[in-house]
Amino acid sequence: MKRSLRSWLRPPRTLKITSAGRTFLLLTLGVGLGALNTGNNLLYLVLGLQLATVVVSGVLSERVLRHLEIRRLGCEGAFAGEPFAYRWALRTRKGRAYALTFRERSDLLDGGGRLGVLPAREERVLRGTLRCERRGPVRLEELSVTTTFPLGLFAKSRILSAPPEVLLVYPRRRPATGHPPAGEHGPLGGTPDPRKLDGQGEPGGLRPLRDGEPARGIHWVKSAVRGTLLKVEREREERHAYELELAPLQGPPLEAECERLAAMATSLLGLGHEVGLTTPRRKLRPAVGPRQLSRVLQALAWAGHEDEEQAL
């Protein structure tokens, strides 16, 4: 009820005067005063043209904003304190649109996107830059679109509605301070895995390719020189499984711990190890790869915001 009342009371458009517009209005005022004092018909004609320009500017800017439609396409990953790319899909049902500026209506986000020309009845992907200073979920509901078309005298804005979405902001990135020993027990304990990291060890020499072995790893230059297929033999690397644990903290200690665990998970997964995570509300089994890193970062982003997650 409050939301619908706020929407009903909100003006459909907002208008701000640009620096060029202030200069133009001052000139218009001066011409008007001169016309009244002198009764000169030429000054009255110039005044009429200036006032007509203001009216035409309002009509054309309204035509640009009236038929716009927008939907969110999202981003690949957002980290607190860093600019990140965000995408929207924009189209106009009628006529062309010019000189558009977009921003999300959220106090937690800075930045937006710009588009010079939008053809009629054609969808364009708009790429902008946003920034959020805190970790956690950010609810996205409405967007603000502004145009300075046609003469840049006024900046007219309109609120566009789009399906609500939640932007999940990951902890701030920082360098990892070190890795836990592979045999250590406890929240950062690791257990060795006898499996090799296929093709990720240090080169240890060349040997003839055996029957039935895959062609992956063949050193083609040396093979051509010697006239026989030679394979790069790599030293054995062990994969370890690490269990990261997030203690039930609050405030700055929670933020610092989330940043530390995110940095450690990024480093360990980049080296090919398995990483798991336990938080007060979640438990991720150890796994490898970019998908596991995404799961870990998402779990750390929701830490401390579980009530908001349940509400969503």
Record field, number of beta strands: 15
Q: Report strand %.
A: 35-45%
Mean pLDDT: 83
Low-confidence stretches: 181-204
* Biggest pleated-sheet summary: 9 strands, mixed
The run of helices and strands is HEHHEEEEEEEEEEHEEHEEHH
| Residues in helix, % | 25-40%
Number of domain modules: 3
Which fold name corresponds to the CATH topology of the largest domain?
A: Immunoglobulin-like
The CATH H-level superfamily of the largest domain is Immunoglobulins
How is this structure best described in words?
With 312 residues, the chain is α+β, with helices and mostly antiparallel strands. The chain folds into three domains: 10-170, Immunoglobulin-like, CATH 2.60.40.10; 173-201 and 239-312, no CATH class; 202-235, no CATH class. The protein has seven helices and 15 strands. The strands form three sheets. Strands 1, 2, 3, 4, 5, 6, 7, 8 and 9 form a nine-stranded mixed β-sheet that branches. A four-stranded mixed β-sheet has the order 10-13-14-15, covered by helices on one side. A hairpin with a 6-residue loop joins strand 8 and strand 9. Helix 2 (19-38) runs antiparallel to helix 3 and helix 5 packs antiparallel against helix 6 (290-302). It is elongated. The model is unreliable at 181-204 (pLDDT under 50).
